[in-house]
Known about the structure:
By secondary structure, the chain is an alpha+beta fold. It contains 1 helix and 13 strands.
Amino acid sequence: MATQTSARLQLYRLNLPVMILAMLMLALLLINHRFALAATATTTVDANIVSTISVVAKNGIVFGDIGASSNPGTITIAVDGSRTSTGGATINSNTSGTPATFEISGDPNALYMITLPDSVVITSSAGDTMTVDNFTSSPSGNGQLDPGGRQNLNVGATMNVGSFQPFGAYQGIVATTVEYN
């Protein structure tokens, strides 16, 4: 029995380096296999901080003095300042009207979008009302700032005058929004 144990021990001693070498090769194979399944790439990260776009009202829409009758009508002020009337509403040509004017400023040459209200209700001190709608602008829909980062924006609209519309001064608030495209 001692001969068998001694033979086994001798065989074990001979195979030990072979077994260690085999395990190292297996480990290297597994490690290399893991690295072969992974890949790395790099790219850049960029950002451009733009200046805030701003809008400053220079003046509001002024329809001027108008007359009402038994028939409803409209007064329209265009972005170029021209006024027209329909129906029973009449324009007093001795008074002037103006579109609203705004100054837009921001990044030079930047494109921006213009958002106008659908309608606005204007009210007299007595509580009587009229609706202003069909807002238009120049530029229309979108604008582009000049190389100095500025542009003027004109806004016109149509005022709906009711039949026998009560006299008085009417006022309301119009919100005009601009944002970069």
